[in-house]
Each structure stands twice: as structure tokens, then as C-alpha cells.
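Postdoc handover notes: sequence design on the structure in folder B. Input C-alpha cells:
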């Protein structure tokens, strides 16, 4: 088995293309909800991508012995906070002039939640994502940042524990167990506790762990097997299947469905297949890696904010 530390994480422009699909889907849903009924699944695409990329970085650094959890969190703060604080400050100023005092108090709680990466809990207490008053919540979208950052709090600790115990070879099994339990809780509670299942990490972690597991498999020398035994047409078919599942999700799923539930498998598996197809897939090279898609993907975080 080749050491992960010997392999640099290559830049993949097609993943930026997936980011573009994710952010444009969310924006389209909020602007044209009747046409892009399932555009909110763009967040699920982000979850898989984040699980894949961040996990890859952590694997590399753990293998090389250079991983520092403090530096990891510092990098996250530098990456997330500048644009986030700008948005929070602008919304706070606008809210002071526009909102009634009672609404401004609620906004203040959302700002605190957004700045402490607990916005998903705040939104769960205040409103549902599909409730009528959700349209009046300017920071509703920050719930997904909360889920991601909560994942970043526990995932490095899991990896460190397994590496120090010299059980890193069992990580795939551990990821599978976590993903299965999270998915089972998601399906079990989505009908009775729809808001909690939508916002809270217990029902969303499986999507991030799908990305983490995919990253682990590709890094543990399974990529050469793909390259040697799958023809270009096979990889292209996998890429198109992934994009097809994303298209079905964006245009087929709607807020009346019990989401996430089983429906979340469509965007999650679609994203995983598109990533697994690799940059050599025709659709990844020519569709996801086209310059407009890559440009939007590169600015997807501030655009999402």
C-alpha cells in the first residue's frame, strides 16, 4: 500500500464544477422555487464534497506525521470567518434599520449562532427550513455551515484516535458504521421530527462520511485499479450517471417530500459518483471543468453567503 503522505492532493477542477452546481442550485431554488423545486439539495452536494476534500487533507497530514489539530482549526477560521463576519455585520446593520425590535432579537440570536457555528440549532429552535416564515430569515442558509463545522470538530478526533491506536486499517469499517447509523436515524425520524432531521448533525453526518469514505478508498491505492480496469467510456458513464442523479434531485425532489430521508440518497450518491468517475471522465473534463463552472465553483463560498 502506497503511503498517503507520498501523494499530494491534486487540484481537481471538476470538483469546483460540482461546487458550482451546488451553489447555483441553492440560489435557483430560493429565486425560482417552482422551477427548481429541489435546488435545496445543493447543500447535500456541498456536504459530500467537504467530506471528501477535508478528509483527504487530514489523511495526508496524519500519514506524514504533520497533522496538528490546532493548526487545522486555525486554517478553518481563516478560511471561513472573514467573509462570514462581513455578511453578519451587513445583515446586523440592515436589521437595525428594517426590523421590528422582536424580529431584531431573533436576528441577533441567528448572528450569534452563525458566528459560533451553531446556526443549525438556532434555526431548529426558531423555524423549519420549509415553513412559511423561513423566507423572512436572512441567515437561514448558515445552518449548513454549522453542520459542516460540527463535523470538523469530531472527524479529526476520530482519525487521530484510530491512528494512535494503530487501527487506521479499520477506518473504512468505522466510517461505514457511523454512516449507516446516521442514515438510519435520518430515515427513522424524518417524518415525526422533520425539522430536527433536516437541521441537526445526527441525520446529516452520513453524507459527509460518504465523502470521507470515498476519499479514503481512492487514497488507499484503489485509484490505479479504476484506471486499469475501467475504459474511458465506463468512467464517463459513471460521471453521467452522477450528474443525472443530481439533475433528478434538483428538478424532481420537492419540499413536500420527506427530506432528507431516503430522498437524500439521490444527490449524495450522485455527487459521490461524479467524484469517483475522476477527472478523466468526459463529462468531468468537458462539463464540470469548463471555465464558467470552475469560476463559479471557486467563488462558491462567498456566493453562498
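Designed sequence:
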Amino acid at each position: 500500500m502506497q503511503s498517503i503522505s507520498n501523494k499530494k492532493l491534486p487540484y481537481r477542477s471538476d470538483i469546483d464544477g460540482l461546487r458550482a452546481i451546488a451553489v447555483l442550485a441553492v440560489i435557483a431554488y430560493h429565486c425560482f422555487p417552482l422551477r427548481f423545486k429541489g435546488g435545496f439539495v445543493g447543500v447535500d452536494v456541498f456536504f459530500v464534497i467537504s467530506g471528501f476534500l477535508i478528509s483527504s487533507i487530514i489523511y495526508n497530514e496524519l500519514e506524514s506525521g504533520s497533522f496538528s489539530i490546532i493548526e487545522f482549526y486555525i486554517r478553518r477560521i481563516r478560511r471561513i470567518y472573514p467573509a462570514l463576519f462581513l455578511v453578519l455585520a451587513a445583515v446586523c446593520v440592515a436589521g437595525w434599520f428594517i426590523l421590528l425590535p422582536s424580529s431584531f432579537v431573533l436576528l441577533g440570536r441567528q448572528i450569534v449562532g452563525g458566528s459560533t457555528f451553531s446556526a443549525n440549532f438556532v434555526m431548529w429552535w426558531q423555524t423549519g427550513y420549509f415553513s412559511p416564515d423561513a423566507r423572512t430569515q436572512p441567515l437561514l442558509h448558515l445552518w449548513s455551515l454549522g453542520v459542516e463545522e460540527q463535523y470538523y470538530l469530531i472527524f479529526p478526533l476520530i482519525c487521530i484516535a484510530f491512528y494512535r491506536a494503530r487501527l487506521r486499517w479499520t477506518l473504512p469499517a468505522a466510517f461505514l458504521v457511523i454512516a449507516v447509523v446516521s442514515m438510519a436515524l435520518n430515515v427513522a425520524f424524518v417524518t415525526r421530527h422533520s425539522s430536527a432531521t433536516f437541521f441537526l448533525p445526527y441525520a446529516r453526518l452520513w453524507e459527509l462520511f460518504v465523502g470521507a469514505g470515498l476519499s479514503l478508498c481512492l487514497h488507499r491505492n484503489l485509484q490505479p485499479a479504476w484506471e486499469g480496469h475501467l475504459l474511458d467510456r465506463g468512467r464517463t458513464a459513471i460521471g453521467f450517471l452522477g450528474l443525472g442523479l443530481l439533475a433528478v434531485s434538483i428538478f424532481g425532489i420537492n419540499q413536500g417530500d420527506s427530506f432528507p430521508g431516503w430522498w437524500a440518497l439521490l444527490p449524495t450518491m450522485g455527487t459521490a459518483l461524479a467524484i469517483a468517475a475522476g477527472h478523466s471522465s468526459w463529462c468531468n473534463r468537458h462539463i464540470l471543468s469548463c471555465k464558467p463552472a470552475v469560476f463559479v465553483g471557486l467563488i462558491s463560498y462567498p456566493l453562498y453567503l
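Context for whoever picks this up: DSSP finds 14 helices and no strands in the chain. Don't rerun without checking with the PI first.
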